[in-house]
Write a structure and sequence with these properties.
- The chain has 685 residues and is an alpha+beta fold.
- Among the domains are: 139 residues, no CATH class; 161 residues, no CATH class; 151 residues, no CATH class.
- The protein is built from 30 helices and 20 strands.
- A six-stranded mixed beta sheet has the order 2-8-5-4-3-9, with no helix packed on it. Strands 1-7-6 form a three-stranded mixed beta sheet, with no helix packed on it. It has a three-stranded antiparallel beta sheet with strand order 10-12-11.
- A hairpin with a 2-residue loop joins strand 16 and strand 17.
- Helix 10 packs across helix 12 and helix 14 crosses helix 18.
- 16% of the residues are buried.
- The C terminus is likely disordered.
- It holds the Pfam family RPC5.
- One of its GO terms (cellular component) is RNA polymerase III complex.
- InterPro entries: RNA_pol_III_Rpc5 (IPR006886), RPC5_C (IPR045576).
Length: 685
């Protein structure tokens, strides 16, 4: 059967569902006297004639109802002019809120024509005539009771009136009033009725309108909605249920779902995160992004919604206070709030501390707004002021100098605008000294103590250097008697430029790349506090030699980088105050390696290698006192000529030098015993 979609009566066709009628009353027996509709509400009211001559009609009941409604008098306002209930009113109600799945179908000559329904209305009898009868009854009772004198009527006419002025309606009260049943009924009553003309079933106009139920064009262009693939047609018949989405619990407004966040574009993700967090280091932001996110794209997006303050990103003011908004505390417009918050951010680019009174005096904003600004990016300290909540991110500043420079130029422009708006004085533009701000802190962390000590050493370096040279000159006279047999042991000798500094970042608070804060000469045995006792130097040498010997007996081949890593782990296992904490330089460690019977293997690495200088320095134990010493020496000689060697070349060389015919298993055993450390410099493939 071919199916066609008729469009002529689209959004005009309604289905009326009438009440069940007696079997003796056919459709032709019913006559529509009048009809009217309210289009917006889709409400219809029909007045239909009742066949009073039908044997099923009770005439006495009809007369009684007419008498109760209209009384004995008949005029134009009477509901039943014939003194008989000869008509009935039907009012409609919507049978379904969504009728998009329903259509009227007409079958003709092997074709099925469908017209979508615009509404389905159920007609029910209206009993408003009973309300009219009650009103008539109350009027008659009032007339029967009216026996009062004219004086009483005069007194009743005089009444005291109390005048009241209505209060201004709040927004919440207005919403409650709009949603009330009384208001909705009033709105519905205000819509005017549109009177309709009813055409009977056999009327020529009805015959003409019925032709619109058939599709006017049978071409494919007129019925593109019905040309669907089987899967699309099945989806239209059985659409997916959306109940699961409605049943999902709604998260609180202050809770951010990372799963939902990662479905958004990258720029929106960063904007939402910064708007919620306010202040964030770049490393933390990258950890919140999905795996595989390009850091360059993140940097490009973060600069659109945040500014760099002390190496950390702080959300821009216009993101928190969009245009056409105002302060919830004072009602100040968003433009003034952004200007005040920019001043606070700029102050934190100059110093770690900001005083609330100073901000309020410059911006002229209420204390609540100023407190909001400070709470976004700082923490209050008792008797100190407000300190920026995150430490200075030195790593980001070193890795991205171009972004730091660009942000600095932006802050210079913001500073120029703030100077014009607030007429800033010189004392506002000049940052206060760090010493004055950080004097006598109530709570000082270990990291802050180390930073303070470093700053103090740098300031007093010149005086300390003079004192050191003076002490060195005084001790030269006693050098012969005080010199111990430690020709191979030296106190840490580091240049000021940290070019070959040992990677002991975990202990920089104790070592900091210098010995007790001073740099010593290579042949010096002095410290900041004077000459180290000979017994102390001897103990340091013994401890260091024991560590190097035990390490190379376990792993015969090591790079300097791997050896330093193992030494740091060894230091971490030692108790506080151990002699090795006095400061061990890279040169001292390398000299001790050579003194314990190890040799440096000059492996010819390729020039384009990405390895660090410490990874290119290879040390190996030359004689371990076992049966594989000769084999190990042959292998080291081979790798001193080439950094990558094939297994068959190693097997042939071992057979020639050692005079033994070694098979594959024996060669593997020699390689495993000789290079058991598994360092990444000798890759045997």
């Amino acid at each position: 059967i071919d199916v066609f979609l008729a469009r002529s009566l689209l959004e005009k066709l309604y289905l009326f569902q009438y009440p069940i009628r007696p079997a003796s009353m056919t459709y032709d027996d019913v006559t529509h006297l009048s009809a009217k509709i309210k289009p917006k509400q889709q409400k219809v009211e029909l007045e239909m004639a009742i066949d009073t001559l039908n044997p099923n009609y009770c005439r006495s009941k009809g007369e009684q109802i007419a008498l109760n409604v209209d009384g004995t008098c008949t005029d134009e306002t009477s509901t039943y002019s014939s003194k008989l209930m000869d008509k009935q009113t039907f009012c409609s109600s919507q049978a379904a809120s969504n009728v998009s799945r329903y259509a009227a179908a007409v079958y003709k000559k092997g074709e099925l024509h469908l017209t979508p329904l615009h509404g389905i209305l159920q007609l029910r009898p209206s009993f408003t005539y009973l309300d009219k009868a009650d009103a008539k009854h109350r009027e008659r009772e009032a007339a029967n009771e009216g026996g009062d004198s004219s004086q009483d009527e005069a007194e009743d006419d005089v009444k005291q009136i109390t005048v009241r002025f209505s209060r201004p309606e709040t927004e919440q009260a207005r919403q409650r009033r709009v949603q009330s049943y009384e208001f909705l009924q009033k709105r519905q009553a205000e819509e005017h009725w549109v009177h309709l003309h009813y055409y009977g079933l056999k009327d020529s106009r009805s015959e003409h309108e019925r032709q619109y139920l058939f599709s006017q064009g049978h071409g494919l262009a007129e019925n593109t909605e019905l040309i669907k693939s089987p899967s699309e047609y099945l989806m239209m018949l059985m659409p997916p249920s959306i109940e699961e989405d409605n049943d999902k619990p709604v998260a609180p407004s202050n809770v951010l779902s990372m799963a939902q966040l990662r479905t958004l574009p990258l720029a929106d993700q960063i904007k939402i995160l910064m708007k919620n967090v306010k202040v964030m280091p770049f490393a933390n932001l990258m950890s919140l992004m999905g795996s595989g996110t390009d850091s360059t794209a993140v940097l490009r997006c973060i600069q659109q919604v945040a500014m760099l303050v002390q190496g950390n990103w702080v959300v821009k003011s216009d993101v928190l206070y969009p245009k056409d908004t105002s302060s919830p505390h004072s009602g100040v417009p968003a433009e003034v709030l952004c200007r005040g918050r920019d001043f606070v951010m700029w102050k934190f680019t100059q110093d770690r501390w900001v005083v609330r009174k100073e901000v309020a005096a410059v911006t002229k904003l209420c204390p609540e707004d100023v407190k909001d600004f400070l709470e976004h990016m700082s923490v209050a300290r008792i008797n100190k002021g407000w300190e920026f909540m995150l430490p200075y991110d030195e790593d980001f500043v070193k890795k991205h100098p171009d972004i730091v420079q660009r942000q600095h130029m932006l802050w210079m422009g913001i500073q120029a605008k703030l100077e014009k708006v607030y007429n800033l004085l010189k004392e506002h533009l000049t940052p206060k000294r760090q010493e004055a701000q950080s004097a006598h802190p109530l709570l000082v962390s270990g990291e802050q103590r180390v930073n303070m000590a470093k700053a103090k050493v740098k300031q007093n370096y010149g005086q300390l250097e003079k004192d050191f040279q003076k002490q060195k000159a005084e001790l030269k006279s006693n050098e012969t008697s005080a010199k111990m047999d430690v020709s191979n042991i030296r106190i840490k000798e580091e240049p000021v430029s940290d070019e070959e500094a040992m990677d002991t970042s975990a202990y920089e608070g104790m070592n900091n790349g210098i010995t007790n804060g001073l740099h010593a000469e290579e042949d010096s045995t002095d410290s900041l506090n004077g000459h180290l006792p000979g017994g102390c130097i001897d103990r340091v040498a013994q401890e260091l030699k024991a560590f190097v010997s035990s390490t190379f007996k376990k792993q015969f081949v090591l790079t300097l980088s791997e050896l330093k890593r193992l030494f740091n782990l060894h230091l971490a296992s030692l108790p506080p105050g151990h002699t090795l904490f006095s400061g061990i330089s890279d040169k001292m460690l390398q000299d001790m390696v050579l003194d314990t019977g190890c040799k440096q293997i000059l492996v010819p690495f390729p020039p384009q290698t990405a390895a660090s200088p410490d990874e290119l320095k290879v040390y190996a134990l030359w004689e371990a006192g076992d049966t594989y010493d000769q084999h190990r020496q042959v292998l080291l000689e081979i790798f001193s000529k080439n950094y990558r060697v094939r297994r068959n070349v190693i097997q042939n060389q071992l057979s020639q030098e050692c005079g033994e015919d070694l098979n594959k298993q024996e060669v593997d055993r020699v390689l495993k015993v000789s290079f058991c450390s598994g360092v990444g410099l000798m890759q045997l493939k």
